[in-house]
Amino acid sequence: xxxxxxxxxxxxxxxxxxxxxxxxxxxxxxxxxxxxxxxxxxxxxxxxxxxxxxxxxxxxxxxxxxxxxxxxxxxxxxxxxxxxxxxxxxxxxxxxxxxxxxxxxxxxxxxxxxxxxxxxxxxxxxxxxxxxxxxxxxxxxxxxxxxxxxxxxxxxxxxxxxxxxxxxxxxxxxxxxxxxxxxxxxxxxxxxxxxxxxxxxxxxxxxxxxxxxxxxxxxxxxxxxxxxxxxxxxxxxxxxxxxxxxxxxxxxxxxxxxxxxxxxxxxxxxxxxxxxxxxxxxxxxxxxxx
Length: 290
What we know:
This protein is mainly α. 46% of the residues lie in helices and 6% in strands. It contains twelve helices and four strands; from the N terminus they run αββαβαααβααααααα. The strands form two sheets. A two-stranded antiparallel ribbon has the order 1-2. A hairpin with a 4-residue loop joins strand 1 and strand 2 (26-29). The two termini are 26 Å apart.
């Protein structure tokens, strides 16, 4: 993204620069706080400040299923975006891996609440997932390196825009991006058998291998865990199949590092150093680039 545009978007989507639409329960960001030149930059990049859409459990999965036939989406294209995200040349690509896994396994199903959680037992759709969403804001935070593939609406928003980006100019990771990924894998392979996810994250931060926030690094590790490249001690996950969200959430109840004030979540929370990296899964998904 054009750095000048990103600077304007940070001003536009500032936490204090909005009015609340009580009827639709969504934030509307104010463009009249921008300078004329900043407003013109939005027009030049065809950035709509407040694109709103309404989501239900049913129509979200209809949209995901429609994307399954898009020729621009494949493991090769989303891993390219993901690697470019890890290395920093295309930060927006980090969310694509988890989003794609969700999309290819999406299927029509009724909402059936999980036994212990207020969400759909199959896909995890919850009260926050549905309703009116400001898609423009969601796209903006994706460019900051946030990961939204764990949510059905977030996954659709991510991939729907990624198809447009890929049609205009396909994303390719640089040699530097791929090298950062190789070094991350080496870090995981060399982990002490008793190392916890939290300890690995601290080590990763101290090495300054991946630029950005703790949330960016967590999103990368969570994505790799979601498709089974980073195994966990609770349930075997795979890029080739879907595991019901309830099963993964129930796994958190069996772990000590997901309780209290911890923000750690499954499946990354279930990794231990002794598990290292599933090399078969790694080659299956990233072999083209490695």
